[in-house]
Amino acid sequence: MPAIHITTEDLAIASAVAAVFSALYAWHSARIAKRALGIVEQDHIERHAGIAGYLIDGVSWESAETGIFVALACSLSNSASAPNSIARVELHLHVFDSSGATSTVILKPVSRDAPLLWELPSISVPINLQARSTLSGWLVYQIPLRVSQALSIDRYELVFSTSTGERITLETYLLKRIENAKG
User: Fold this and answer.
1) Which residues of the chain have pLDDT under 50?
2) Is residue 16 domain-resident?
3) Do residues 21 and 70 share a domain?
4) How much is the pLDDT for 115?
5) What pLDDT is attached to residue 182?
6) Which of 50, 68, 76, 116 has its CA 20 to 30 A from that of 99?
7) Do residues 77 and 144 both lie within one domain?
8) Does 161 share its domain with 77?
9) Dihedral sign (CA 158, 161, 162, 163)
10) 100 to each of 107, 151, 174, how far by Cα in Å?
11) Residues 65 and 121 in one domain
12) Which segments of the chain does DSSP mark as H helices, in order?
C-alpha cells in the first residue's frame, strides 16, 4: 500500500475548506435564529397588545338633592391574544376656581342606572376582557355639590388602569345635558 504524503499546503487547503463550511453553517444558523426571534417577538406583541378605548358619548344631569351626575359611554377593545383586566377606572375632573387656580378632582364610579341612551349596559369595575374582545357600556359618576357649586369644570378625563399598570385615557371637554333624568 502506497504511503499518502500530506503536505502543509494540503492541510492549509483542507482547513480553509472546513472554515468556509463552518462559516456557511454559522450564517445559516444565524438566519434561522433571527427568523425564530422575529416569530417570538411578533407573538409577544400580539399577546401583550394594549387595550384601546373609545368614548362613545357623554351626558350629564342634575338632581336637586344629590348633585350632578355624569355618565360616559365608552368601548374598550382588547386586541391581545391573552385576556386582560382593568382594575381601576377614575374620572379626573380638571377644574378651576374663580381666581383661575387649577386643580384635579378624582372620582370613582357609582352604582347607578345610566340614561337609557344607546341601549348600553352599565359597566362595573373590575372589567375583565377576554382575548380579542370588546366591551361597551356606561360609567356613571356623581359630582359632589361642593365641587359643582365652587368650581368650573374645564375637562373630563376618564382614566383606566389595567392590572399590568398600563393607563388608557379618554377625554372630552363637552357633555350633553339631559333634563328629566331620574334623580
Assistant:
1) none
2) yes
3) no
4) 67
5) 54
6) 68
7) yes
8) yes
9) negative
10) 21, 10, 19
11) yes
12) 8-47, 145-150
Measure the CA–CA gap between 101 and 105, rounded to whole angstroms: 13
Q: Which domain holds residue 38?
A: 1-47
The pLDDT tens digits of the residues spanning 49-70 come to: 788 999 999 999 887 777 789 9
The confidence score (pLDDT) of residue 180 equals: 64
Length of the chain: 183
Counts for the chain of helices (H) and strands (E), in that order: 2, 9
- 8 shares a domain with 68: no
- 63 and 140 Cβ atoms separated by less than 8 Å: no
Same-domain check for residues 41 and 60:
no
Q: In whole angstroms, give the CA distance from residue 106 to residue 92.
A: 5
Residue 127 forms beta bridges with which residues?
Answer: 86
Number of domains in the chain: 2
Nearest CA to 106 out of 95, 93, 118 is that of: 93
